[in-house]
Amino acid sequence: MSTDFAARHIGTDGAAQRRMLDALGYDALDDLVGRAVPSAIHAAPPADSVIPPAASEDEALAELRALAGRNGSARSMIGLGYYDTHTPAVIQRNVLENPSWYTAYTPYQPEISQGRLEALINFQTMVTDLTGLATAGASMLDESTAVVEGMLVARRASKSRSSVFLVDADALPQTKALLAHRADAVGIELHEVEITADAAALPEAFGILIQYPGASGRVVDPSRAIAAVQERGGLVVVAADLLALTLLRSPGALGADVAAGTTQRFGVPMGFGGPHAGYLAVRAGLERQLPGRLVGVSVDAAGDPAYRLSLQTREQHIRREKATSNICTAQVLLAVMASMYAVYHGPDGLRRIAEVVAGRAALLAEWLIEAGAEVVHETFFDTLTVRVPGRADEVVATAHDRGYQLWRWDADTVGISVDETTTTTDLHVVAQAFGGPAQRAFGFAAGALSARHTDASLARDDEYLTHPVFNTHRSETAMMRYLKQLADRDYALDRGMIPLGSCTMKLNAATEMAAVSWPEVARVHPFAPADDVRGYLDLVDQLESWLAEVTGYDAVSLQPNAGSQGELAGLLAIRGYHRSRGDEARDVCLIPSSAHGTNAASAVLAGMRVIVVACDEAGNVDLDDLRAKIAAHADALAALMITYPSTHGVYEHDVLAITGAVHDAGGQVYVDGANLNALLGYARFGDLGGDVSHLNLHKTFAIPHGGGGPGVGPVAAKAHLAPFLPSHPLAQRAEHAGGFLFDGGPVSAAPYGSASILPISWAYVRMMGAAGLRAATGAAVLAANYVAARLRDHYPVLYAGEGGLVAHECILDLRPLRESTGITVDDVAKRLIDYGFHAPTMSFPVAGTLMVEPTESEDLAEIDRFVEAMVAIRAEADRVAAGDWPADDNPLVGAPHTAVSTVVGEWRHPYTREEAVYPVRSLVRTKYWPPVRRIDQAYGDRNLVCSCPPPDAFA
Fold first, then answer.
1. For the chain, percent helix, then strand, then coil, each to nearest 5?
2. pLDDT in tens, 581-620
3. Integer Cα distance of 343 and 532 in angstroms
4. Which is nearest to 506 in space by CA: 128, 901, 862?
5. So what's the pLDDT on residue 605?
6. 145 in Cβ contact with 278 (< 8 Å)
7. What is the pLDDT of residues 177-212, one digit of tens each?
8. Which has the closest alpha carbon to 123: 295, 306, 275?
9. Which strand ranges, in their side-by-side order, compose the sheet holding 715-717?
10. 33 with 784: CB under 8 angstroms?
């Protein structure tokens, strides 16, 4: 392998950069970046950097192997929402390890996202069928955050005026902790209740959470509690195990309004906590309350069915401070895996897996009773709570010595969970830890014993997963071909450049990805004993220290599993800091008008009031307006949120004056780290006056976007905010990030969030080294300025900073083009598909514009190919203006063009077939053919269909 990974990662070599610099009129790369980045914030590399010199790919993999080897080999039987699982090899190889799936972006351009959109509608159908509810979203971040979102849905939709939300005493402990942290910030009062108690005695509430089965394993009929809450105007959220729902009555059948949970055990490794696809489903009438992503069915320009994101008016960049959720993404890659697990196994296969799991749990219960232990609950699915007075520590230790992790509830009680990987030999060894015999003759039949531990009234009697997609792909050949067909319908980084501004679609190197599939990384429970996760904890320590250094902060928490959750964690830390000082009245958050919409939504969910600050004509924060807003809210000022470089893609030269004014008024400064790719190695957020920031490891630090997730959004802070960073009641150690001193509370279900993808960013930093990170920033800034310079004569560049320079992205203003030619930003975006490109970011942060970010990973040939495509499209638009083509029939408004549209029927357009699909000769051998024509977005919202359409719809 190469000993110079940075040269592999950065697409432009010295000769290419020389050409680009010549075009811009600069002698050296540092001269260019030095001019763009304000001199007042330049940061020299530290003399005693904690980031080691760059390692080769071989060296980095060897170090990762050593770290992974420090994770213990004990098998987890802890449960609590996390289970070992068999990932079918055909799914691991063709989805998880396939760049066609993991390097794709969020499907904002649905015409080139039909493969993953179909996979997501399979996911939604799987969830709705199993939960018995009408509509499910395209995945949530994890189970506990999904339950929080369910609580917020209940509050919005409830007719009760109560501020109380009831929580099942048998709910997962991590979910209880997350509910408590999130509820406090938005004024919700939690009451813990026993579901089996007298339903009439339940207090009035706007909603209730019921865990089904319970964390203890108990399975009870919650129908009376559900009816009692609903009679008083409350809504019911059921956190349900999908595998159990193949055997148990569905939440919908029980009368629930909302169901939430995780799909982790559907073939997605535990990975020390993530990433996994949570789910959220609602009954009919609540679909427009769903947060996050929803995939629906519409029609394209030919009238054929096509998939797209539905109800996009709910997106936070539109609703902003009126948003009721800050969730702006999904866990697409993991949702695809879970849906394909259901596709591969089908309803019969899933039921068989569930029956085997339930049968083995029942067999273990019989053996434990024989050994003299007390199995607490008579009815259960896969989890046993076992009472061994005074012996719990001894039993757990003995089982661990024999290679198994059990859960210690207290000194008298042990928890054990069975999953699809559990064998009868495993059960025999575990039973010995309770005093069972060393020798035993046994066979195993799934159904006989489990029937003795099942409530017959809760047995599922309706069909599910009846759609052909779940009943067709049984052989590996069929499954492999189905996955290939879907992948071929999509456009990902393995096909070409994705120049999305603010999204940083850079290389996700294969070496960085390698560790994700290793068993010692993948098959680790997030609540495993500290001695069994030493490698993970060491990796976390190293990555946190590296991120702290490059950002200029003192502490980092890797727990947030999305950028939006990192925002929320940072703002909750600010809230906690002010409250600890008695400044509870400080609740105003100042946010520039150009900010990403999740900023405002996160502030609301942190219990803050949003006050918008104006921007000037150059796209910078209006200092006069900022000072006026500070003066007007001086005693209530909690925070300012800014993005640096700005959302407009420029380095604000007054940033120190901005942060200084906020600090002088007693506020804290939140610097959104979305654009760190333009700063790394040249300046640091902590030196700009930032008190706290979130970072996007799925952007700057090379974790792939996975078609719209996974992501990691760590939060970094100065020392005075460190005690308020996320904590977790089940973390392996209390010293992480600031500890439990002030109990910052969790923001995700697992202590370290999506830990199994942290090795990607670890490997990126380890192989780049500090110098490589700085070189990547320089290359990204050079590429963006090169694109801006070459296109400025064709499309105005909307904002620029010192010397007419931009940061790592530039905004092309297409509004004059529409005025002169009638061609819209949508037309240009769709026409780029015909040229073999994913469009840049559309209409953000300014309507009618394209935000272009070439990143450091693209080579000059690909950058030039994009520039030439944009120039050619401008020429096509000019032909429309000149009358060569009609305004309503030209290659731009007709884009994208499918193969069938050019070969079937008579060609009646005033432009040729070749002009439609081969606008440049280089496409003849490399053409990407979109599977559908332009999709009618409004039709899909008017005719909301969010589950698998019948096969004849595609006939």
1. 45, 15, 45
2. 999 999 999 999 888 878 999 999 999 999 999 998 878 8
3. 34
4. 862
5. 94
6. yes
7. 999 999 999 999 999 999 988 888 899 999 999 999
8. 295
9. 555-557, 715-717, 692-695, 668-673, 637-643, 588-592, 609-613
10. no
Domain total in the chain: 1
| Biggest CA-to-CA distance, the chain | 90
Determine the average pLDDT of the residues in 555-565: 95
Structure tokens at 679: 């700063």
- Residue 740 is predicted with a pLDDT of 40
Report how far residue 275's alpha carbon sits from residue 334's, in angstroms, rounded to the nearest whole number. Answer: 7
Q: What percent of the chain has pLDDT over 90?
A: 88
- Report how far residue 179's alpha carbon sits from residue 165's, in angstroms, rounded to the nearest whole number: 10
Domain membership flag for residue 53: no
How crowded is the C-beta side of 448, counted as CA atoms within 13 Å?
Answer: 5
- Which tokens belong to 60? 């980095």
- CA distance linking residue 859 with residue 295, whole number of Å: 34
3-state secondary structure of 513: helix
Range of the domain at 339: 114-292+327-489
Residue 260's DSSP bridge partners are 239, 280
Q: Which amino acid is at 304?
A: D
Residue with tokens 């080897």: 69
How far lies 355's CA from each of 127, 143, 243, in Å?
19, 23, 10
In this predicted structure, the answer to whether residue 447 has a pLDDT above a threshold of 70 is: no
pLDDT of residue 140: 97
Looking at residue 315, the DSSP 8-state letter turns out to be S
Each residue's pLDDT tens digit, 35-61: 999 999 998 888 899 999 999 999 999
Whole-number Å distance between alpha carbons of 265 and 85 = 6
User: Are residues 465 and 471 in contact, defined by beta-carbon separation less than 8 angstroms?
Assistant: yes
Which residues are 813's β-sheet partners? 849
Surface-to-core class of residue 15, CB atoms within 10 Å of its CB (0-12 exposed, 13-18 middle, 19+ buried): exposed
CA torsion, points 645, 647, 650, 654, in degrees to nearest 10? -70
Contact 148, 564 (CB under 8 A): no
Q: Establish if 98 belongs to a structural domain.
A: no
Amino acid 358: pLDDT: 96
In a domain, 416, yes or no: yes
Give backbone dihedrals phi and psi of 607, rounded to 5 degrees, phi first: 80, 25
Across the chain, mean pLDDT equals 94
Question: Each residue of 784-800: pLDDT tens digit?
Answer: 999 999 999 999 999 99
**Residue 43 CB neighbours (<10 A):** 16
Question: What three-state secondary structure class fits 68?
Answer: helix
Helices marked H in 552-681: 563-580, 597-605, 623-632, 655-664
Closest CA to 715 of 600, 841, 602: 602
In a domain, 268, yes or no: yes
Which residues have a Cβ under 8 Å from the Cβ of 311 and sit 6 or more positions away?
287, 288, 290, 294, 296, 941, 944
Please give the Cα distance from 55 to 771 (Å, whole number): 12
Across the range 676-698, mean pLDDT stands at 97
E strands, 794-945, are: 810-813, 841-842, 849-852
Strand duo 668-673 + 692-695: pairing: parallel
Cβ–Cβ under 8 Å, residues 377 and 217: yes
Calpha distance 768→640 (Å, rounded)? 33
Q: What is the dihedral of CA 516, 493, 560, 602, to 10 degrees?
A: -170
What is the spatial distance between Cα 856 and Cα 811, in angstroms, rounded to a whole number? 17
**What token pair was written down for 789?**
């310079």
Please state, in angstroms and rounded to a whole number, the distance separating the CA atoms of residues 265 and 269. Answer: 7
Strand pairing partners for 671? Answer: 642, 693
Name the 3-class secondary structure at 793.
coil
Domain CATH for 233: 3.40.640.10
Query: For 885, which DSSP code?
Result: S
Mean pLDDT for the stretch of residues 353-363: 96
Is the pLDDT confidence value at 312 over 60? no
710 token code pair: 């996974």
The string of pLDDT tens digits covering residues 743-761 is: 579 999 999 999 999 999 9
Q: Which residue carries 């559900």 as its tokens?
A: 226
